[in-house]
Design a protein that fits this description.
heterodimer, A: about 200 residues, mainly alpha, 8 helices, elongated, disordered N terminus, B: about 180 residues, Rna Polymerase Sigma Factor, Chain: A, Arc Repressor Mutant, subunit A, 2 domains
Amino acid sequence: MTAPHDGNGRKVSSLAEIPTSIEPGRDLWPNIEARLKESPAAAPVTTGAHAIPAHLRRARPPWLAAAAMVASVAVGVWIGRSLLPGVGRGVEGTAATTAPSGFAAATDATVLDAAYVSDPRYQRQRAALLRSLPARLAALPPPARAKVLASLAAIRKAKEDLESALGKDPSNALLQELLVDTYQDEMRVLTDVREASEPGRGI
Amino acid sequence: MAHAQAEDTRVEWEAALVQRARGGDTRAFERLYREHAGRVYGLCLRMTRDVQLAEDCTQDTFINAWRALPRFETRSSLGTWLHRIAVNVSLARRRRSSPVEPLPEETEEGLAEAWTLETPVEVREIETAIGDLPDGARDALVLHALYGYSHGEAAQMLGIAEGTCKAQLHRARKLLRERLGVEVN
């Protein structure tokens, strides 16, 4: 055997003083990482109803799926807004151009830090928006309603996945940030619907 | 106090990395590897006495750990868990080439716990003497005297009776004494 501590001429008076750690002569991680990709995954936690192949699960943590969902929600929201009359684009007509800036105020209210999730004002505003949502949805054109419902379903799924992941790793800053983003997306959709269904907004 | 807090922080940090690795996060697993590779490799090298074999055993240890992460209890020590895997991997590799000779169980009571040397000796000289020990004696010595595992823990890791482990330690002490030319207490 090659002496593990080459050049170590230090004298010790107990075997417990001998360093237990010996760095390998080369970095072994690249080989290990390559083999991880070939080997079965470490059975990651699955949060969705859809089974994901093992080779994909390994490289795709569940919260990453949630993160992807948040991204898709952002697209969904954008599509939804583009379909909603009078929201997110120029609206012809006096009523639209003179519409109150409630939408801008509502979206500004979503640009807050993580504390806003438990803020009573936020909770009240969210509860009010959710109460009025069915009536407002009923007033929307079917394509816009379908987009909004799809966005809200994606947001709900993302929240469940992220909250589940945070239950296992509560201090994960990235997960916390993604959860706040998801709540913000939800609020954005709800306020969009409210603004779009207000009288004089062209619905 | 500060040391205990630092240790708590380290344990929490490690537990968080384990959770992330369980979710398939290879970056988190790499950080665990970086944290433990030295001690795992040191154990494998001392058990196999071969650099190439020790590298292979270290890699196998972490691959096996990755696969078994869902079964790891986060309340227990990740280091100890990895050492158990490393011992298993090293023994399996070694058994392919040379079976370990059995020893009668040690009946003598009160083996000294401290492995102190009558006069200081260079680390290099001790490592060479340890490397020259027979496999069974060296395994028991490395786990008990260097890594600090109890007789029972070392025996369990090696898959031998505690009495056999004590006998191997007794033998290791005697051989070290002869080879180093100093009293080993």
